[in-house]
């Protein structure tokens, strides 16, 4: 809109169309605008261009009798003086807000609180809620006690490295790697809010190189996990881990999650595939589970033969949903139209592992353990059939060609027999607990 000579009477009567905001530039003071929202709210703003050519706009205040046209023009002229001197009013305001919000950040614990708050609100490197929950857990369990009370000036590469090495000494290797990443991000935030001049671990080498995981559960661990998942009420989280938990020592794993975890053992499919299982994917009479391509990591449809124990487990899960309007086998208890979140399965298994004293285990390690046992001497299943069961695109070598060009033969009989043999071995392991899973 072209600039106009604003008057008090014009400002008092200025309106905007419903649902639209309009700005009325002042001809007498360049950059000053009266802005009127679709709801009728009025405010003063000032547009400017810095010496470096960056355009900016700042809000001067809400329109009122005390802050009318004359006062707004005077404030706009004062703001122009800042611009003429080489300043950027919007940047100065942002800095002032940051200082006000972070002047209390004196210790590493203060920094952690400020970092999580800024990240949650999207002011600093926004992240998914699950990522933030994981970072908070790493901080609470592994970082807070070691660094939380240190003043920021005393947090050095040496102190961080010492804390991480103590973690390595206790055997939590993967958590040490994650802790280093969280600490680095927090210290980068400290630089961003000008509480530190530089990140002391910005170029610090990884405390340990992250290699592809090779974790395979032993027979005893398989038995402990399986029985623990089946009866979590008989387990207890150790006191040193339970401190501060909402559930205390209790292992909180609901009936549906128990069944989902057991299906992960029985079928060796990925957690998102298990938790997203839909009723229309199942043919329980024929013992088949057909996962559409859209739900597969490989983006190819996948058919999983269901051994008898898996069919029974799925039927039990469906019965738990009696009365719910849902098309899913494992619906969220918050919204039955959506499946349980993958992080809930991680959390459930983590509780069981902690109660059983099993270190450095994950959901995916269940799949890896079953995969390893399939091709071991104990079962002797071919890598190709194992690959077909796991839903991989290929089994390596010439198998890729076969999978690409001859997938009409989905090897259902071979896959069914292999999964049945795996279920039989698993039943033997969890009932006797003898031998090794490698």
Can you lay out the helices and strands and say which pair or pack?
Layout (H helix, E strand, L loop, with lengths): L7 H6 L8 E4 L6 E5 L5 E8 L5 E8 L6 H16 L4 H14 L5 H13 L8 H19 L9 H13 L3 H20 L26 H12 L8 H4 L12 H13 L3 H5 L6 E2 L4 E4 L10 E4 L2 H13 L21 H15 L6 H12 L8 H8 L8 H7 L6 H21 L6
Antiparallel strand pairs: 1-2, 2-3, 3-4, 5-6, 6-7
Explain how this protein is built.
The protein contains 17 helices and 7 strands. The chain is of the alpha+beta class. It folds into 3 domains: 82 residues, Integrase, DNA-binding domain (Double Stranded RNA Binding Domain, 2-Layer Sandwich), CATH 3.30.160; 89 residues, Orthogonal Bundle (DNA polymerase, domain 1); 214 residues, Orthogonal Bundle (hpI Integrase, Chain A). The strands form 2 sheets. The chain has a 4-stranded antiparallel sheet, covered by helices on one side. A 3-stranded antiparallel sheet has the order 5-6-7. Strand 2 and strand 3 form a beta hairpin. Helix 5 packs across helix 6, helix 6 packs antiparallel against helix 7 and helix 8 packs across helix 17. The longest helix is centred in the C-terminal third of the chain and has 21 residues. The protein is elongated.
């Amino acid at each position: 809109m072209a600039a106009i000579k604003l008057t008090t009477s014009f400002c008092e009567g200025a309106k905007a169309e419903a649902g639209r905001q309009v700005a009325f530039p002042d001809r007498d003071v360049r950059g000053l605008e009266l802005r009127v929202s679709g709801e009728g709210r009025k405010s003063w703003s000032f547009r400017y261009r810095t010496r470096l050519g960056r355009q900016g706009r700042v809000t001067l205040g809400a329109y009122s009798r005390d802050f009318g046209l004359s006062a707004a023009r005077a404030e706009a002229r004062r703001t122009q003086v800042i611009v003429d001197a080489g300043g950027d009013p919007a940047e100065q305001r942002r800095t002032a807000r940051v200082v006000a919000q972070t002047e209390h950040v004196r210790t590493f614990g203060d920094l952690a609180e400020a970092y999580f708050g800024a990240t949650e609100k999207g002011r600093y490197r926004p992240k998914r809620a699950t990522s933030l929950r994981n970072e908070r857990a790493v901080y609470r369990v592994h970082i807070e006690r070691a660094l939380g009370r240190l003043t920021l000036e005393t947090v050095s590469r040496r102190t961080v490295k010492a804390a991480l090495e103590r973690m390595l000494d206790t055997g939590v290797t993967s958590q040490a790697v994650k802790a280093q990443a969280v600490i680095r991000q927090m210290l980068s935030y400290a630089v961003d809010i000008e509480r530190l001049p530089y990140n002391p671990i910005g170029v610090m080498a990884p405390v340990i190189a992250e290699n592809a995981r090779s974790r395979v559960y032993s027979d005893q661990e398989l038995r402990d996990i399986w029985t623990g998942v089946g009866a979590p009420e008989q387990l207890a989280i150790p006191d040193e881990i339970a401190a501060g938990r909402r559930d205390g020592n209790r292992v909180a794993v609901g009936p549906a999650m128990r069944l989902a975890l057991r299906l992960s053992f029985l079928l060796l499919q990925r957690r998102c595939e298990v938790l997203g299982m839909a009723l229309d994917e199942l043919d329980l009479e024929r013992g088949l589970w057909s996962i559409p391509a859209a739900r597969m990591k490989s983006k190819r449809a996948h058919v999983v033969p269901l051994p008898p124990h898996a069919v029974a487990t799925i039927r039990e899960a469906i019965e738990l949903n009696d009365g719910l309007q849902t098309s899913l086998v494992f619906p969220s208890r918050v919204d039955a139209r959506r499946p349980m979140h993958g992080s809930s399965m991680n959390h459930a298994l983590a509780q069981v592992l902690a109660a059983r004293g099993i270190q450095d285990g994950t959901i995916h390690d269940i799949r890896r353990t079953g995969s390893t046992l399939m091709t071991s001497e104990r079962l002797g299943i071919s890598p190709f059939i194992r690959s077909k069961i796991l839903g991989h695109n290929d089994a390596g070598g010439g198998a890729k060609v076969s999978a690409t060009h001859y997938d009409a033969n989905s090897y259902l009989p071979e896959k069914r027999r292999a999964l049945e043999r795996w279920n039989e071995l698993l039943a033997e392991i969890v009932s006797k607990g003898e031998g090794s899973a490698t």
